[in-house]
Amino acid sequence: LKMSWFWFYLPLHLLMAACLCHSIKAPTTSSQQSFNTDLFNFYHSLILADGKETTVHLLKDIPKRYYFVLEEGRGLAPFTVTVTPCDVPIEWSILVHKTSASFHGKAARGDHDTQEVSKSQKAPSMVSTIFNYKGNSVETYMGMSSHSALYMLEFLSTERDTHITVYLTTDTTSGHLYPELPMDPRIDVIGIGHTTVTLTWKHSPSVLQHRENIQYCLLVNEKHNYKSLCAAETAIRSSGMKLPPMLALSLSPYLLEPQQVMILSNSELSIINKVSSGEVRQICMGTKNTYTVPNLSPSTQYYFDVFVVNLLTNASAAYTGTFARTLEEPEPKVMELKDGKVIQVVLDGKTQKFYSLQYQARHKKIQFTLQLCHGQVRVHITKNGKTVASENISGLRYFSLKGKLLDTYLVQLRSTEESNSSVKVQVSPHFHKPLFPLLPDSLKIKSFSKLRTCNSVTIAWLGTQEESKYCVYKKRIEEDQVWVELRSADRCSGPESRHKSEKVLCKYFYNINLQRAVTTETIKGLDAGTLYLFDVYLFGPSGIPVRYHSKIVKTRKKC
Length: 559
Fold this sequence. Notes:
By secondary structure, this protein is mainly beta. The chain contains 8 helices and 36 strands.
């Protein structure tokens, strides 16, 4: 059984036969009309390559046809057709048109006269459907043929435009394009944790035979299982991202999109695609058939698909997908607050979960003090289970509360942005001994544009009615460092975190009249056309500093 170039020209002769039949207007039976229609359909089909995977694009409700020809040979010979839907379910069929040897001989010798065609036309139609399927699973048809035949494959998508892949082979001696699956292609879940799931699966026979050219790739998502790698990649692309073909499989250094993160460690390639429905991870782990998926979210259902991939052809076969739900996260431990003690809490921006602090009152009046160090934080305070305060905090915030002895207060904190946040917390019954200094109405630093020169700038800030110490620091920065400096500033850190060369001066001042409680300072010895970051630290009786909002000023380039 073999492919023959002769058959590439067969549809033309069949079409000529149908056309001549109509032109002479000879009486026809219903079977002859059906035969002519079949010939016309075969002619308007495309040739399906043998031994190659073909990508077929389908338009909604418009059938597409391909054909292939098997020539008469010795004995029975097998052929296989594998169809892989890459998105929605499709319908596809295999039709066969068996022709007589005499007709083939005439066509091969080029006898195209009307008389011979008429004889062939009188032959009964032998077109029949030998296979049909509807769905989105990878399906393979295996057939046997002992005589010359013309086969047609017809594909139809009724949901939307889509694409599929088709693989035809008549050569069963040169190996398989697709890797083989084991007799039991299921994925077993052998371990579940709060943030991990451990999977195992039986080895593919292809891995055992061609280890250097075969590898396993795992797909993890929160939506559903995929029946082919082609379907998975289509889903990722439809989420609005550009996925380089076989990115996770080829191990090539493609340029990733902004929504993609590639991690390469311990000979494993992980690609995390950020899509609207969550993360889709692609992990390739060589020929290991046991893998622990890390960094999952607690109490979340995940779907796992394993594909065995031929690295030479990029063809893949899918194991039967599975799913598992990670364990619920244990209740967070509640930290006890003690009178007067300051603690600093770092909040995870990724999970945005509440961090809990508990306090049992030993006085009727208490005061919570919170100083935001970095990021954005929301605080929720309850007394005996009832909410008494809930808001986003910025800078320094006091909560003065009244209650009874032994009332139980719960302070819950969480980051309101994706990056980590931090905050200092203190509870105290001693209102007359504040932890932080008395603050002005605003912690902004003002600069005077008209007073800028090439080597000096003048800044001003508000003070209070209480005599306090103020220290000024400067730092030279580059244009591309502005956002990073402002974003990473720790408002809880004091001058001890600064380099000694950055210190400009320290001074004391106050004014009973708040409208006049303002001070200015001219910083000299600066470079022309240069950006500087200025900070002012306010120290109170306890010695704990409060940092004003940083100010960036650029000296004049020309004077």
